[in-house]
Amino acid sequence: MGKTHTKEMQKDPQERADPRQFLQWHPAFCAGMQIELEEGIYYVTGDYLPIQILLLNRLPEEENFWLRNLTDHLEGEKCAERLVREYRRHKDNTLYQAMMDIIIRANREQFEEAKNMCDALRELFAEELEEKYQAGESEGRREGLMKGRQEGRQEGRSELSRLILKLSELGRTDDIIKAAENPEYQEQLMKELGI
After folding, report:
1. Which helix (H) or strand (E) holds 86?
2. Which helix (H) or strand (E) holds 52?
3. What is the pLDDT of residues 71-124, one digit of tens each?
4. Structural domain tally of the chain?
5. Which domain covers residue 128, as residue numbers?
6. In a domain, 154, yes or no
7. By three-state DSSP, how is residue 63 classified?
8. Which of 36, 59, 82 finishes a domain?
């Protein structure tokens, strides 16, 4: 691999002058290769797998707003603010949610530095976070209730078993039958026997 090609590969893809120069570094790769350019997109076809190379900074801005911002170095606070505004219009769409999540994660410092942006993000996501909190709280209550009931039943069966064994040891079989028919009498016997 030539020195110029190595330097070209180390550059930020958006700073490379012409991807055709970069792609022609290996003769086996460029055999039969054709490269067509369309505003920021290079279509590379040939003997191998056809590919597209996107130069984000050369794509038409309005048509490719989200794609242009799929980077780890946003073009300033105004760009981040516009992303938030645009996202508000599409926040129920899972594709936009995924894109915004990726962009925020890749540019966390930039979003955190702008206090107004953080406030806007909190406001933007407040409704979603509240819904998720409410859903989690409801699920927690449901699980807690189920577990509590299960433990209560288990404890009740354990106490009843101890009562039956104690009454059996004392030869009080009539009380076993009466306790099975009458929960109040069962409670009275448990108090009496210290269960």
Report:
1. helix 77-90
2. strand 51-54
3. 888 877 777 778 888 888 888 899 888 888 888 888 877 766 655 555 666 676
4. 2
5. 124-193
6. yes
7. coil
8. 59
